[in-house]
Amino acid sequence: MKKVLMLILAMLMVVSVVGCSSPTTADPDPAPPAEEVVEGKYNDGTYEAVSDAGPRGYGKVVVTIENDEIVALELTEYTGFNEQKGDDYAYGEFHEAQAELTEAYIAANGTEGVDVFTGATSSSTKWTQALDRALEKALVEASSDAEYSDGIFMGATELGERGRKLAWVTIENDKIVEVELKETRFVDDNEEYKDEEYAFEAFHEALEEMPARFIEANGADVEIYTGATSSSTGWMEAVENALEAARK
Questions:
Q1: Do domains 45-138 and 151-246 have the same CATH topology?
Q2: Fewer Cβ atoms within 10 Å of its own Cβ: the N or the C terminal residue of the chain?
Q3: How far apart are CA 220 and CA 243, in angstroms?
Q4: pTM for the structure as a whole
């Protein structure tokens, strides 16, 4: 009898423990994933860049970016003498293109979908390329580790009493692969390029030799050509300015 009572008491204790235990609850819903932080495409700031240059010059843009939006834009163009085309430039379509494309690029927040301006195709193409290069400079994540953009870049000295020196520098994969040099003079108060009829022989020798020196050095720091010191030093400055224009 005593054993029966003890067995009953043990069973009651088990039932009591089971009854008092808390029911198993489902695991709480997992925490929602942290909201993904979207990095900006561009760094805020003002950036400038130029287009490829040719005998008729190049285009230049200065663009200001805030919160991934173009908030200000300036389009300019330079002649083959490195002179900026100003308000007195006679070609009316140029000024129309300058105004309309400024608004179009800002509205598009870039160059995508912006057509060339009829009557100013050359200017339009130059500005599109220059703006693309400026926006590339502004990227948060650089598109490449290159120091320079590929292309043809123009540099020049300031205009003096005897003219100016100019350089067109072609760059591929951070290497100078071609250099074209010119120098101007005044003839009847008109600025002209010195041509093969220019009488100073050392000038023509330097004109042939200096491009090879710039290419070999992959820069502007080269030896002056004996007998053409003024031309040599001017071209060194012009090449340095061209390289600065090409810098990313």
A1: yes
A2: N
A3: 8
A4: 0.82
